[in-house]
Design brief:
Structural class: mainly beta
Shape: globular
Strand content: over 45%
Number of strands: 11
Helix content: under 10%
Order of helices and strands: EEEEEEEEEEE
């Protein structure tokens, strides 16, 4: 199993920056890729950014050029640097890990951290 704990959310004005962190523990060696998702009120959860164990990244079009995902494998940490924040970035942000649990690929989720961007 993989356990994830997010931190770093908060309230920020439009144009500001925040850095989210996610601490992973458990069967770290079984993780394939990790990512950040977000869910705004009344909307479905959506992928924000993803990074593979080899460091390849992909981003939602809405955050390209503003957000940067990174991971520190030595510290078992995942980060999301968010710059030029917009009110539409307001959501609960979740850390995700896709890992091999037994013979099956599985997903683990953190508890979420609230990001609120005021206009």
């Amino acid at each position: 199993q993989v356990q994830l704990v997010e931190s770093g959310g908060g309230l920020v004005q439009a144009g500001g920056s925040l850095r989210l962190s996610c601490a992973a523990s458990g069967s770290i060696f079984s993780i394939n890729f990790m990512g950040w998702y977000r869910q705004a009120p009344g909307k479905q959860r959506e992928l924000v950014a993803r990074i593979t164990s080899g460091g390849n990244t992909n981003y939602a079009d809405s955050v390209k050029g503003r957000f940067t995902i990174s991971r520190d494998n030595a510290k078992n940490m995942l980060y999301l640097q968010m710059n030029s924040l917009k009110p539409e970035d307001t959501a609960v942000y979740y850390c995700n890990a896709h890992f091999l649990g037994g013979l099956n690929w599985r997903d683990s989720w953190g508890q979420g951290t609230q990001v609120t961007v005021s206009s």
